[in-house]
Description:
Blueprint: H1 13-42, H2 44-47, H3 49-56, H4 60-73, H5 77-94, H6 98-118, E1 133-137, H7 142-146, E2 153-158, H8 166-174, E3 178-179, H9 185-188, E4 195-198, E5 203-206, H10 210-233, E6 247-252, H11 258-263, E7 269-273, H12 276-279, H13 287-301, E8 306-309, H14 320-324, H15 336-342, H16 344-358, E9 363-367, H17 373-392, E10 402-407, H18 410-414, H19 416-420, E11 425-428, H20 430-438, H21 456-471, E12 475-478, H22 486-494, E13 499-502, H23 507-516, H24 519-530, H25 535-549
Parallel strand pairs: 1-2, 2-3, 6-7, 6-13, 7-8, 8-9, 9-10, 10-11, 11-12
Antiparallel strand pairs: 4-5
Helix pairs in contact: 1-3, 1-6, 4-5, 5-6, 13-16, 16-17, 22-24, 22-25
Magnesium ion binds next to helix 20.
Amino acid sequence: xxxxxxxxxxxxxxxxxxxxxxxxxxxxxxxxxxxxxxxxxxxxxxxxxxxxxxxxxxxxxxxxxxxxxxxxxxxxxxxxxxxxxxxxxxxxxxxxxxxxxxxxxxxxxxxxxxxxxxxxxxxxxxxxxxxxxxxxxxxxxxxxxxxxxxxxxxxxxxxxxxxxxxxxxxxxxxxxxxxxxxxxxxxxxxxxxxxxxxxxxxxxxxxxxxxxxxxxxxxxxxxxxxxxxxxxxxxxxxxxxxxxxxxxxxxxxxxxxxxxxxxxxxxxxxxxxxxxxxxxxxxxxxxxxxxxxxxxxxxxxxxxxxxxxxxxxxxxxxxxxxxxxxxxxxxxxxxxxxxxxxxxxxxxxxxxxxxxxxxxxxxxxxxxxxxxxxxxxxxxxxxxxxxxxxxxxxxxxxxxxxxxxxxxxxxxxxxxxxxxxxxxxxxxxxxxxxxxxxxxxxxxxxxxxxxxxxxxxxxxxxxxxxxxxxxxxxxxxxxxxxxxxxxxxxxxxxxxxxxxxxxxxxxxxxxxxxxxxxxxxxxxxxxxxxxxxxxxxxxxxxxxxxxxxxxxxxxxxxxx
Length: 560
Ligand code: PEP
Ligand code: MG
Protein backbone atom coordinates (compact mmCIF):
# COMPACT_ATOMS: atom_id res chain seq x y z
CA UNK A 1 0.00 0.00 0.00
CA UNK A 2 1.36 3.44 -0.93
CA UNK A 3 0.84 6.05 1.76
CA UNK A 4 0.91 9.64 0.47
CA UNK A 5 2.81 12.22 2.44
CA UNK A 6 0.40 14.61 4.20
CA UNK A 7 1.32 17.30 6.66
CA UNK A 8 -0.57 17.74 9.91
CA UNK A 9 -0.98 20.97 11.82
CA UNK A 10 0.98 21.71 14.97
CA UNK A 11 -2.22 21.41 17.00
CA UNK A 12 -2.83 17.88 15.65
CA UNK A 13 0.53 16.44 16.68
CA UNK A 14 -0.54 15.32 20.15
CA UNK A 15 -3.62 13.49 18.90
CA UNK A 16 -1.66 11.92 16.02
CA UNK A 17 0.88 10.58 18.52
CA UNK A 18 -1.85 9.17 20.65
CA UNK A 19 -3.43 7.50 17.58
CA UNK A 20 -0.05 5.95 16.86
CA UNK A 21 0.32 4.73 20.42
CA UNK A 22 -3.14 3.16 20.31
CA UNK A 23 -2.46 1.48 16.96
CA UNK A 24 0.79 -0.05 18.25
CA UNK A 25 -0.83 -1.20 21.42
CA UNK A 26 -3.78 -2.74 19.55
CA UNK A 27 -1.42 -4.48 17.10
CA UNK A 28 0.50 -5.93 20.05
CA UNK A 29 -2.69 -7.23 21.65
CA UNK A 30 -3.81 -8.79 18.35
CA UNK A 31 -0.45 -10.46 17.81
CA UNK A 32 -0.39 -11.82 21.34
CA UNK A 33 -3.85 -13.24 20.81
CA UNK A 34 -2.77 -14.84 17.52
CA UNK A 35 0.34 -16.25 19.20
CA UNK A 36 -1.68 -17.75 22.04
CA UNK A 37 -4.21 -19.24 19.64
CA UNK A 38 -1.46 -20.82 17.56
CA UNK A 39 0.31 -22.09 20.69
CA UNK A 40 -2.90 -23.75 21.75
CA UNK A 41 -3.62 -25.17 18.30
CA UNK A 42 -0.14 -26.14 17.10
CA UNK A 43 2.10 -26.03 20.16
CA UNK A 44 4.77 -23.65 21.44
CA UNK A 45 7.25 -23.93 18.57
CA UNK A 46 5.18 -22.59 15.64
CA UNK A 47 3.94 -19.87 18.00
CA UNK A 48 7.50 -18.57 18.26
CA UNK A 49 7.18 -17.16 14.75
CA UNK A 50 5.22 -14.31 16.38
CA UNK A 51 8.06 -13.36 18.72
CA UNK A 52 9.94 -11.59 15.95
CA UNK A 53 6.91 -9.40 15.23
CA UNK A 54 6.26 -8.68 18.88
CA UNK A 55 9.94 -7.88 19.36
CA UNK A 56 9.72 -5.23 16.63
CA UNK A 57 6.67 -3.67 18.23
CA UNK A 58 8.69 -3.20 21.41
CA UNK A 59 11.85 -2.05 19.65
CA UNK A 60 12.51 1.58 20.52
CA UNK A 61 15.17 1.95 17.81
CA UNK A 62 12.36 1.41 15.30
CA UNK A 63 9.48 3.13 17.08
CA UNK A 64 11.19 6.24 18.50
CA UNK A 65 12.16 7.66 15.08
CA UNK A 66 8.54 7.19 13.92
CA UNK A 67 7.26 9.29 16.82
CA UNK A 68 10.07 11.75 16.23
CA UNK A 69 9.04 12.30 12.61
CA UNK A 70 5.41 12.88 13.57
CA UNK A 71 6.50 15.42 16.21
CA UNK A 72 9.16 17.31 14.33
CA UNK A 73 8.33 16.89 10.62
CA UNK A 74 4.59 16.83 11.25
CA UNK A 75 3.91 13.93 8.87
CA UNK A 76 0.97 11.61 9.49
CA UNK A 77 1.51 8.55 11.68
CA UNK A 78 0.62 6.33 8.68
CA UNK A 79 3.29 7.93 6.53
CA UNK A 80 5.96 7.69 9.23
CA UNK A 81 5.09 4.04 9.94
CA UNK A 82 5.09 3.10 6.29
CA UNK A 83 8.44 4.81 5.65
CA UNK A 84 10.13 3.19 8.64
CA UNK A 85 8.84 -0.33 8.00
CA UNK A 86 9.46 -0.21 4.28
CA UNK A 87 13.00 1.02 4.90
CA UNK A 88 13.62 -1.90 7.21
CA UNK A 89 12.12 -4.39 4.75
CA UNK A 90 14.37 -3.01 2.00
CA UNK A 91 17.41 -3.50 4.22
CA UNK A 92 16.45 -7.11 4.85
CA UNK A 93 15.82 -7.71 1.15
CA UNK A 94 19.17 -6.23 0.23
CA UNK A 95 20.88 -8.91 2.31
CA UNK A 96 19.94 -11.29 -0.46
CA UNK A 97 19.28 -14.51 1.41
CA UNK A 98 16.04 -16.42 1.66
CA UNK A 99 15.95 -16.02 5.44
CA UNK A 100 16.10 -12.26 5.20
CA UNK A 101 13.53 -12.20 2.42
CA UNK A 102 11.24 -13.99 4.87
CA UNK A 103 12.05 -11.39 7.50
CA UNK A 104 11.25 -8.62 5.00
CA UNK A 105 7.82 -10.09 4.40
CA UNK A 106 7.31 -10.34 8.18
CA UNK A 107 8.14 -6.64 8.48
CA UNK A 108 5.69 -5.75 5.71
CA UNK A 109 3.05 -7.87 7.40
CA UNK A 110 3.50 -5.78 10.51
CA UNK A 111 3.39 -2.59 8.42
CA UNK A 112 0.01 -3.67 7.02
CA UNK A 113 -1.32 -4.44 10.48
CA UNK A 114 -0.35 -1.02 11.80
CA UNK A 115 -1.67 0.87 8.78
CA UNK A 116 -4.98 -0.98 9.02
CA UNK A 117 -5.22 0.02 12.68
CA UNK A 118 -4.40 3.63 11.86
CA UNK A 119 -6.96 3.84 9.10
CA UNK A 120 -9.58 2.21 11.25
CA UNK A 121 -10.10 -0.66 8.81
CA UNK A 122 -10.50 -4.15 10.03
CA UNK A 123 -7.55 -5.92 8.46
CA UNK A 124 -9.36 -9.13 8.81
CA UNK A 125 -11.88 -9.40 5.98
CA UNK A 126 -11.99 -13.05 6.87
CA UNK A 127 -13.68 -12.16 10.14
CA UNK A 128 -16.75 -11.26 8.09
CA UNK A 129 -16.80 -14.49 6.15
CA UNK A 130 -19.76 -16.67 7.02
CA UNK A 131 -19.21 -19.80 4.92
CA UNK A 132 -16.09 -21.83 4.08
CA UNK A 133 -13.78 -20.15 1.56
CA UNK A 134 -10.55 -20.78 -0.30
CA UNK A 135 -8.13 -17.96 0.23
CA UNK A 136 -6.21 -16.69 -2.79
CA UNK A 137 -3.46 -14.20 -2.02
CA UNK A 138 -0.26 -12.89 -3.49
CA UNK A 139 1.54 -13.90 -0.35
CA UNK A 140 0.64 -15.12 3.08
CA UNK A 141 3.05 -14.52 5.91
CA UNK A 142 3.65 -17.27 8.47
CA UNK A 143 1.73 -15.30 11.08
CA UNK A 144 -1.23 -14.90 8.75
CA UNK A 145 -1.16 -18.60 7.90
CA UNK A 146 -0.84 -19.53 11.55
CA UNK A 147 -3.81 -17.42 12.56
CA UNK A 148 -6.19 -18.76 9.91
CA UNK A 149 -9.40 -20.18 11.23
CA UNK A 150 -9.53 -23.53 9.44
CA UNK A 151 -13.26 -23.87 9.95
CA UNK A 152 -13.62 -20.89 7.57
CA UNK A 153 -10.56 -21.16 5.37
CA UNK A 154 -10.54 -24.67 3.96
CA UNK A 155 -7.48 -24.16 1.74
CA UNK A 156 -5.27 -21.47 0.32
CA UNK A 157 -3.13 -20.71 -2.70
CA UNK A 158 -0.54 -17.98 -3.13
CA UNK A 159 1.60 -16.54 -5.91
CA UNK A 160 4.73 -16.32 -3.78
CA UNK A 161 6.51 -18.72 -1.46
CA UNK A 162 8.35 -22.01 -1.55
CA UNK A 163 7.82 -25.46 -0.15
CA UNK A 164 10.38 -25.04 2.59
CA UNK A 165 9.27 -21.60 3.82
CA UNK A 166 7.76 -21.12 7.25
CA UNK A 167 4.34 -20.52 5.69
CA UNK A 168 4.38 -24.01 4.21
CA UNK A 169 5.56 -25.54 7.46
CA UNK A 170 2.73 -23.86 9.36
CA UNK A 171 0.21 -24.79 6.66
CA UNK A 172 1.27 -28.42 6.83
CA UNK A 173 0.64 -28.33 10.56
CA UNK A 174 -2.83 -26.84 9.99
CA UNK A 175 -3.72 -29.81 7.84
CA UNK A 176 -5.50 -27.92 5.02
CA UNK A 177 -4.71 -28.14 1.29
CA UNK A 178 -2.23 -25.48 0.31
CA UNK A 179 -0.45 -24.46 -2.87
CA UNK A 180 2.31 -21.89 -2.50
CA UNK A 181 4.49 -20.39 -5.21
CA UNK A 182 1.95 -20.69 -8.04
CA UNK A 183 3.38 -17.38 -9.40
CA UNK A 184 0.22 -15.95 -11.02
CA UNK A 185 -2.87 -17.35 -9.34
CA UNK A 186 -4.09 -13.91 -8.18
CA UNK A 187 -4.27 -12.81 -11.84
CA UNK A 188 -6.68 -15.59 -12.68
CA UNK A 189 -9.09 -15.56 -9.75
CA UNK A 190 -11.63 -12.93 -8.72
CA UNK A 191 -13.58 -12.59 -5.51
CA UNK A 192 -16.41 -15.08 -5.43
CA UNK A 193 -15.04 -17.39 -8.16
CA UNK A 194 -15.45 -21.11 -7.69
CA UNK A 195 -12.04 -22.74 -7.32
CA UNK A 196 -10.70 -26.23 -6.69
CA UNK A 197 -7.25 -26.55 -5.19
CA UNK A 198 -5.74 -30.00 -5.23
CA UNK A 199 -2.89 -29.99 -2.72
CA UNK A 200 -1.85 -33.52 -3.75
CA UNK A 201 -1.05 -32.68 -7.34
CA UNK A 202 -0.51 -28.93 -6.96
CA UNK A 203 -3.36 -28.21 -9.39
CA UNK A 204 -5.65 -25.18 -9.21
CA UNK A 205 -8.84 -25.25 -11.27
CA UNK A 206 -10.68 -21.94 -11.68
CA UNK A 207 -14.39 -22.06 -12.48
CA UNK A 208 -14.58 -25.84 -12.83
CA UNK A 209 -17.39 -27.40 -14.89
CA UNK A 210 -20.01 -29.65 -13.27
CA UNK A 211 -18.29 -32.79 -14.42
CA UNK A 212 -14.98 -31.78 -12.78
CA UNK A 213 -16.76 -30.86 -9.57
CA UNK A 214 -18.55 -34.21 -9.53
CA UNK A 215 -15.24 -35.98 -10.12
CA UNK A 216 -13.57 -34.13 -7.23
CA UNK A 217 -16.52 -34.77 -4.93
CA UNK A 218 -16.13 -38.43 -5.70
CA UNK A 219 -12.38 -38.21 -5.03
CA UNK A 220 -13.01 -36.49 -1.69
CA UNK A 221 -15.38 -39.27 -0.66
CA UNK A 222 -12.87 -41.91 -1.76
CA UNK A 223 -10.13 -40.11 0.14
CA UNK A 224 -12.29 -40.01 3.26
CA UNK A 225 -12.86 -43.75 2.98
CA UNK A 226 -9.16 -44.35 2.35
CA UNK A 227 -8.23 -42.21 5.37
CA UNK A 228 -10.73 -44.02 7.59
CA UNK A 229 -9.11 -47.29 6.50
CA UNK A 230 -5.67 -45.88 7.26
CA UNK A 231 -6.78 -44.80 10.74
CA UNK A 232 -7.63 -48.40 11.54
CA UNK A 233 -4.11 -49.35 10.50
CA UNK A 234 -2.59 -47.28 13.33
CA UNK A 235 -3.26 -49.98 15.91
CA UNK A 236 -2.18 -52.91 13.70
CA UNK A 237 1.32 -54.37 13.76
CA UNK A 238 3.84 -53.01 11.29
CA UNK A 239 4.90 -56.38 9.96
CA UNK A 240 5.22 -58.08 6.64
CA UNK A 241 2.79 -60.84 5.69
CA UNK A 242 5.45 -63.38 6.76
CA UNK A 243 5.85 -61.79 10.19
CA UNK A 244 8.96 -59.55 10.02
CA UNK A 245 8.59 -56.40 12.07
CA UNK A 246 9.48 -53.12 10.35
CA UNK A 247 9.92 -50.28 12.84
CA UNK A 248 8.20 -47.08 11.73
CA UNK A 249 9.41 -43.94 13.48
CA UNK A 250 8.60 -40.28 12.83
CA UNK A 251 10.56 -37.30 11.51
CA UNK A 252 9.58 -34.21 13.48
CA UNK A 253 10.54 -30.55 13.73
CA UNK A 254 8.44 -29.57 16.74
CA UNK A 255 7.67 -31.59 19.86
CA UNK A 256 4.02 -30.68 19.37
CA UNK A 257 3.94 -33.18 16.51
CA UNK A 258 4.45 -36.12 18.88
CA UNK A 259 0.80 -36.80 19.83
CA UNK A 260 -0.17 -37.01 16.13
CA UNK A 261 2.85 -39.22 15.46
CA UNK A 262 1.80 -41.68 18.17
CA UNK A 263 -1.78 -41.56 16.98
CA UNK A 264 -0.64 -42.54 13.47
CA UNK A 265 1.06 -45.61 14.94
CA UNK A 266 4.65 -44.28 15.07
CA UNK A 267 6.85 -46.20 17.52
CA UNK A 268 8.98 -43.20 18.43
CA UNK A 269 10.98 -40.39 16.85
CA UNK A 270 13.68 -41.42 14.37
CA UNK A 271 14.73 -37.88 13.46
CA UNK A 272 14.19 -34.81 15.60
CA UNK A 273 15.37 -31.88 13.46
CA UNK A 274 16.49 -29.41 16.09
CA UNK A 275 17.15 -26.32 13.96
CA UNK A 276 13.79 -24.65 14.26
CA UNK A 277 14.32 -23.30 17.77
CA UNK A 278 17.26 -21.39 16.30
CA UNK A 279 15.37 -20.09 13.29
CA UNK A 280 12.25 -18.76 14.92
CA UNK A 281 13.81 -16.24 17.29
CA UNK A 282 16.20 -13.34 17.05
CA UNK A 283 18.73 -14.80 19.51
CA UNK A 284 20.02 -18.33 19.98
CA UNK A 285 18.01 -20.39 22.46
CA UNK A 286 19.51 -20.89 25.90
CA UNK A 287 20.58 -24.24 27.34
CA UNK A 288 17.51 -24.23 29.58
CA UNK A 289 15.14 -23.55 26.68
CA UNK A 290 16.66 -26.40 24.67
CA UNK A 291 16.59 -28.72 27.68
CA UNK A 292 12.91 -27.95 28.30
CA UNK A 293 12.02 -28.64 24.66
CA UNK A 294 13.86 -32.01 24.56
CA UNK A 295 12.57 -33.02 27.98
CA UNK A 296 8.96 -32.27 27.01
CA UNK A 297 9.44 -34.32 23.83
CA UNK A 298 10.74 -37.29 25.83
CA UNK A 299 7.94 -37.02 28.35
CA UNK A 300 5.37 -36.95 25.56
CA UNK A 301 6.95 -40.09 24.16
CA UNK A 302 6.48 -41.84 27.47
CA UNK A 303 9.38 -44.28 27.13
CA UNK A 304 9.30 -44.59 23.33
CA UNK A 305 12.72 -43.88 21.77
CA UNK A 306 13.81 -40.57 20.30
CA UNK A 307 16.80 -39.95 18.03
CA UNK A 308 17.81 -36.34 18.20
CA UNK A 309 19.95 -34.86 15.47
CA UNK A 310 22.36 -32.15 16.52
CA UNK A 311 22.19 -28.78 14.80
CA UNK A 312 22.00 -28.86 11.01
CA UNK A 313 22.19 -25.12 10.38
CA UNK A 314 23.51 -23.54 7.21
CA UNK A 315 22.70 -24.07 3.50
CA UNK A 316 18.97 -23.30 3.44
CA UNK A 317 18.60 -22.95 7.21
CA UNK A 318 20.46 -19.88 8.51
CA UNK A 319 20.58 -18.07 11.78
CA UNK A 320 20.64 -14.28 11.55
CA UNK A 321 24.39 -14.26 11.93
CA UNK A 322 25.00 -16.82 9.17
CA UNK A 323 22.80 -14.89 6.79
CA UNK A 324 24.91 -11.78 7.27
CA UNK A 325 27.87 -13.58 5.72
CA UNK A 326 26.43 -15.34 2.65
CA UNK A 327 28.47 -18.14 1.11
CA UNK A 328 28.99 -18.71 -2.59
CA UNK A 329 28.11 -22.41 -2.35
CA UNK A 330 26.16 -22.76 0.88
CA UNK A 331 25.30 -26.45 0.37
CA UNK A 332 29.02 -27.16 0.05
CA UNK A 333 29.95 -24.66 2.71
CA UNK A 334 29.97 -24.15 6.42
CA UNK A 335 26.81 -26.05 7.22
CA UNK A 336 25.68 -28.61 9.72
CA UNK A 337 28.38 -30.39 11.76
CA UNK A 338 31.04 -28.20 10.11
CA UNK A 339 29.34 -25.10 11.45
CA UNK A 340 29.07 -26.65 14.92
CA UNK A 341 32.75 -27.59 14.98
CA UNK A 342 33.66 -23.99 14.19
CA UNK A 343 31.16 -22.55 16.65
CA UNK A 344 31.84 -24.59 19.73
CA UNK A 345 29.87 -22.55 22.28
CA UNK A 346 26.64 -23.09 20.34
CA UNK A 347 27.43 -26.81 19.89
CA UNK A 348 28.41 -27.38 23.53
CA UNK A 349 25.27 -25.61 24.74
CA UNK A 350 23.14 -27.95 22.68
CA UNK A 351 25.07 -31.03 23.81
CA UNK A 352 24.66 -30.06 27.47
CA UNK A 353 20.91 -29.61 26.95
CA UNK A 354 20.76 -33.00 25.23
CA UNK A 355 22.62 -34.73 28.03
CA UNK A 356 20.47 -33.15 30.75
CA UNK A 357 17.32 -34.20 28.88
CA UNK A 358 18.65 -37.75 28.39
CA UNK A 359 17.81 -38.50 32.03
CA UNK A 360 14.11 -38.23 31.17
CA UNK A 361 13.64 -40.94 28.56
CA UNK A 362 15.18 -43.08 25.84
CA UNK A 363 17.32 -40.80 23.75
CA UNK A 364 19.95 -41.32 21.08
CA UNK A 365 22.04 -38.61 19.43
CA UNK A 366 23.32 -38.37 15.89
CA UNK A 367 25.57 -35.97 14.03
CA UNK A 368 24.51 -34.71 10.58
CA UNK A 369 26.54 -34.38 7.38
CA UNK A 370 29.63 -36.22 8.55
CA UNK A 371 32.00 -36.40 5.58
CA UNK A 372 35.32 -37.41 7.15
CA UNK A 373 36.41 -39.62 10.02
CA UNK A 374 38.22 -36.66 11.56
CA UNK A 375 34.97 -34.71 11.78
CA UNK A 376 33.22 -37.58 13.51
CA UNK A 377 36.08 -37.99 15.97
CA UNK A 378 36.10 -34.28 16.78
CA UNK A 379 32.34 -34.24 17.36
CA UNK A 380 32.60 -37.30 19.61
CA UNK A 381 35.52 -35.80 21.51
CA UNK A 382 33.54 -32.65 22.23
CA UNK A 383 30.58 -34.75 23.33
CA UNK A 384 32.82 -36.74 25.70
CA UNK A 385 34.25 -33.52 27.07
CA UNK A 386 30.76 -32.12 27.70
CA UNK A 387 29.83 -35.42 29.41
CA UNK A 388 32.81 -35.06 31.75
CA UNK A 389 31.83 -31.50 32.50
CA UNK A 390 28.29 -32.66 33.37
CA UNK A 391 29.68 -35.44 35.53
CA UNK A 392 31.86 -32.93 37.43
CA UNK A 393 28.78 -30.83 38.03
CA UNK A 394 26.83 -33.88 39.25
CA UNK A 395 24.28 -33.46 36.49
CA UNK A 396 22.14 -36.52 35.97
CA UNK A 397 22.28 -37.95 32.44
CA UNK A 398 22.25 -41.22 30.53
CA UNK A 399 25.89 -42.38 30.63
CA UNK A 400 25.21 -45.01 27.97
CA UNK A 401 23.59 -42.68 25.49
CA UNK A 402 24.03 -44.08 21.99
CA UNK A 403 25.87 -41.95 19.47
CA UNK A 404 25.26 -42.35 15.78
CA UNK A 405 25.74 -40.47 12.56
CA UNK A 406 23.78 -39.59 9.47
CA UNK A 407 25.02 -40.92 6.19
CA UNK A 408 24.15 -38.19 3.72
CA UNK A 409 27.38 -37.59 1.84
CA UNK A 410 28.82 -40.11 -0.67
CA UNK A 411 32.19 -40.14 1.14
CA UNK A 412 30.46 -41.36 4.29
CA UNK A 413 28.51 -44.01 2.38
CA UNK A 414 31.67 -45.29 0.67
CA UNK A 415 33.70 -45.31 3.87
CA UNK A 416 30.86 -46.77 5.93
CA UNK A 417 33.09 -49.57 7.26
CA UNK A 418 35.48 -47.01 8.81
CA UNK A 419 32.61 -45.13 10.44
CA UNK A 420 30.84 -48.29 11.59
CA UNK A 421 33.65 -48.94 14.05
CA UNK A 422 33.08 -45.62 15.74
CA UNK A 423 29.32 -45.25 16.10
CA UNK A 424 26.38 -47.24 17.46
CA UNK A 425 24.10 -46.59 14.52
CA UNK A 426 23.70 -45.14 11.03
CA UNK A 427 20.76 -43.15 9.75
CA UNK A 428 20.75 -42.74 5.98
CA UNK A 429 19.66 -39.23 4.96
CA UNK A 430 18.73 -39.71 1.34
CA UNK A 431 17.54 -36.11 0.85
CA UNK A 432 21.10 -34.90 0.98
CA UNK A 433 22.71 -38.12 -0.21
CA UNK A 434 20.82 -37.80 -3.51
CA UNK A 435 21.79 -34.15 -3.99
CA UNK A 436 25.47 -34.79 -3.28
CA UNK A 437 25.66 -37.99 -5.34
CA UNK A 438 23.92 -36.54 -8.37
CA UNK A 439 25.19 -32.95 -7.98
CA UNK A 440 21.61 -31.62 -7.97
CA UNK A 441 20.50 -28.85 -5.62
CA UNK A 442 17.50 -30.39 -3.87
CA UNK A 443 15.71 -27.02 -3.69
CA UNK A 444 16.25 -25.82 -7.27
CA UNK A 445 13.12 -26.36 -9.38
CA UNK A 446 15.16 -25.93 -12.60
CA UNK A 447 17.01 -29.19 -12.04
CA UNK A 448 14.25 -30.96 -10.12
CA UNK A 449 13.83 -33.61 -12.82
CA UNK A 450 17.42 -34.77 -12.20
CA UNK A 451 16.80 -35.25 -8.49
CA UNK A 452 15.79 -38.91 -8.45
CA UNK A 453 16.13 -41.42 -5.61
CA UNK A 454 15.81 -44.25 -8.15
CA UNK A 455 19.18 -43.42 -9.69
CA UNK A 456 21.21 -46.66 -9.53
CA UNK A 457 24.20 -44.81 -8.04
CA UNK A 458 22.10 -43.71 -5.08
CA UNK A 459 20.70 -47.21 -4.59
CA UNK A 460 24.21 -48.65 -4.73
CA UNK A 461 25.36 -46.33 -1.94
CA UNK A 462 22.34 -47.16 0.24
CA UNK A 463 23.00 -50.85 -0.32
CA UNK A 464 26.61 -50.49 0.72
CA UNK A 465 25.71 -48.75 3.97
CA UNK A 466 23.14 -51.43 4.88
CA UNK A 467 25.62 -54.22 4.08
CA UNK A 468 28.32 -52.62 6.24
CA UNK A 469 25.85 -51.99 9.06
CA UNK A 470 24.96 -55.68 9.05
CA UNK A 471 28.62 -56.78 8.96
CA UNK A 472 29.54 -54.58 11.93
CA UNK A 473 26.26 -55.35 13.71
CA UNK A 474 25.18 -51.74 14.07
CA UNK A 475 21.61 -50.55 13.56
CA UNK A 476 20.92 -48.87 10.22
CA UNK A 477 17.81 -46.89 9.50
CA UNK A 478 16.75 -44.47 6.77
CA UNK A 479 15.16 -41.07 7.41
CA UNK A 480 15.10 -39.28 4.01
CA UNK A 481 11.76 -38.47 2.39
CA UNK A 482 11.75 -41.75 0.44
CA UNK A 483 11.06 -43.56 3.72
CA UNK A 484 7.56 -42.11 3.35
CA UNK A 485 7.19 -42.85 -0.37
CA UNK A 486 5.25 -46.09 -0.74
CA UNK A 487 6.88 -46.65 -4.12
CA UNK A 488 10.19 -47.31 -2.35
CA UNK A 489 8.96 -49.34 0.63
CA UNK A 490 9.45 -52.79 -0.90
CA UNK A 491 12.90 -51.88 -2.21
CA UNK A 492 14.08 -50.54 1.16
CA UNK A 493 12.88 -53.68 2.94
CA UNK A 494 14.43 -55.85 0.22
CA UNK A 495 17.75 -54.06 0.68
CA UNK A 496 17.65 -55.09 4.33
CA UNK A 497 16.28 -52.08 6.23
CA UNK A 498 14.09 -52.87 9.22
CA UNK A 499 13.67 -49.31 10.54
CA UNK A 500 12.31 -46.35 8.60
CA UNK A 501 11.77 -42.82 9.89
CA UNK A 502 9.25 -40.76 7.98
CA UNK A 503 6.78 -37.90 7.97
CA UNK A 504 4.16 -38.98 10.55
CA UNK A 505 1.26 -38.47 8.12
CA UNK A 506 2.70 -41.14 5.79
CA UNK A 507 3.04 -43.90 8.42
CA UNK A 508 -0.33 -45.58 7.74
CA UNK A 509 0.20 -45.73 3.97
CA UNK A 510 3.66 -47.20 4.34
CA UNK A 511 2.40 -49.67 6.93
CA UNK A 512 -0.28 -50.78 4.51
CA UNK A 513 2.38 -51.70 1.96
CA UNK A 514 4.47 -53.45 4.60
CA UNK A 515 1.51 -55.60 5.65
CA UNK A 516 0.85 -56.62 2.05
CA UNK A 517 4.30 -57.90 1.14
CA UNK A 518 6.69 -60.66 2.20
CA UNK A 519 10.44 -60.48 2.65
CA UNK A 520 11.27 -62.94 -0.16
CA UNK A 521 9.38 -60.81 -2.71
CA UNK A 522 11.09 -57.62 -1.49
CA UNK A 523 14.52 -59.27 -1.69
CA UNK A 524 13.81 -60.47 -5.20
CA UNK A 525 12.78 -56.95 -6.17
CA UNK A 526 15.98 -55.48 -4.68
CA UNK A 527 18.11 -57.97 -6.63
CA UNK A 528 16.30 -57.15 -9.84
CA UNK A 529 16.65 -53.39 -9.25
CA UNK A 530 20.37 -53.92 -8.64
CA UNK A 531 20.76 -55.15 -12.21
CA UNK A 532 19.37 -51.96 -13.83
CA UNK A 533 21.48 -49.09 -15.01
CA UNK A 534 18.83 -46.43 -15.53
CA UNK A 535 16.41 -44.78 -13.15
CA UNK A 536 13.59 -45.25 -15.67
CA UNK A 537 13.98 -49.05 -15.48
CA UNK A 538 14.11 -48.86 -11.69
CA UNK A 539 10.98 -46.72 -11.46
CA UNK A 540 9.02 -48.93 -13.84
CA UNK A 541 9.99 -52.01 -11.90
CA UNK A 542 9.04 -50.41 -8.55
CA UNK A 543 5.66 -49.36 -9.96
CA UNK A 544 4.93 -52.82 -11.37
CA UNK A 545 5.83 -54.59 -8.15
CA UNK A 546 3.86 -52.21 -5.96
CA UNK A 547 0.83 -52.60 -8.21
CA UNK A 548 1.14 -56.36 -7.99
CA UNK A 549 1.33 -56.26 -4.19
CA UNK A 550 -1.37 -53.63 -3.75
CA UNK A 551 -3.54 -53.22 -6.84
CA UNK A 552 -5.16 -49.97 -5.62
CA UNK A 553 -1.86 -48.36 -4.54
CA UNK A 554 -1.01 -44.85 -5.68
CA UNK A 555 2.05 -45.44 -7.83
CA UNK A 556 2.66 -41.82 -8.75
CA UNK A 557 5.93 -40.37 -7.66
CA UNK A 558 6.00 -37.09 -5.81
CA UNK A 559 9.63 -36.10 -5.59
CA UNK A 560 12.60 -37.17 -3.53
C1 PEP B 1 18.32 -35.97 4.73
O1 PEP B 1 19.20 -35.25 4.26
O2 PEP B 1 17.88 -36.99 4.17
C2 PEP B 1 17.67 -35.62 6.01
C3 PEP B 1 16.80 -36.42 6.57
O3 PEP B 1 18.00 -34.43 6.56
P1 PEP B 1 17.36 -33.01 6.13
O4 PEP B 1 16.21 -33.29 5.20
O5 PEP B 1 16.95 -32.36 7.40
O6 PEP B 1 18.53 -32.37 5.47
MG1 MG C 1 20.17 -33.76 5.51
